[in-house]
Amino acid sequence: MPHHGNEEEHGEEPVRFTDKRKVDPETGEVRDAAGQEDVTASGEGVETEDALAQAEQILNEAGQQEPPAAATDVEAELRNDLLRLQAEYVNYRKRVERDREAVRDLAVQSVLTSLLPVLDDLDAARKHGDLDEGPFAAVAKKFDTILAGHGLERIEDAGVAFDPTVHEALMQQPSPEVPEDHVAQVLRNGYRKGERVIRAAQVIVSTGE
Questions:
Q1: Which of 95, 130, 170, 200 has a CB 3.0–4.6 Å from the CB of 125, allowing a cystine?
Q2: pTM score of the predicted model
Q3: CA distance 85 to 134
Q4: 121-174 confidence digits (pLDDT tens)
């Protein structure tokens, strides 16, 4: 058969149109392929969030509507089912947020725990006066500021009442200046984040005079 020049134009391959065309057939403008790929990727990433937001909006609007005066038993039952579904959805969202927050806290706590040996070295250097001045003192100060920004607190106070939840008693000794069952000296600082104790402080407990 003779070959017609327009045979390829009517074949299956040329007839297939996709979003990968470089020129818009309606406007004649050149398309940005990279931009289209970015839009597609971002659309896929937020698809789940959009669906959840739409579902939440529908449930909220339905829950705010007043039931008609002449509602049938079936309509009332459907409305109650919808209200139960709305309550379950709200509880689900709250549970997801709590789980996300818990995962974030565990991740931060894990990092802070791994940094405790470094903090012990800094405390030892500070006691020996190595951090009174100089560039290393500035670095240590910035390091402490960053950790404090993540909620890390030192347990380092002496003279306070002994608390087994935050203190680890290594020994007892008499002290005329510190009351009985109070911390006479902190041997190693403890740390906590919020209400969670990452490491208890090692202390000497006073037995009084």
A1: 130
A2: 0.56
A3: 63
A4: 999 998 888 888 888 888 999 999 999 998 899 999 999 999 999 999 999 999
Burial class (CB in 10 A: 0-12, 13-18, 19+), 176: exposed
Place of tokens 């309606």: 26
117 backbone φψ class: left, alpha, beta (φ>0; ψ -120 to 50)? alpha
Mean pLDDT of 196-209: 92
Using CA atoms, how far apart are residues 110 and 136, in angstroms rounded to an integer? 25
Helix axis angle, 73-114 to 47-64, nearest 10°? 140
The CA-CA-CA angle for residues 206, 163, 183, to 5°, reads: 25
Asked if 62 and 86 touch (Cβ cutoff 8 Å), the reply is yes
36 Cβ contact partners less than 8 Å away, ≥ 6 residues apart? 19
Q: How many beta carbons lie within 10 A of that of residue 199, not counting itself?
A: 18
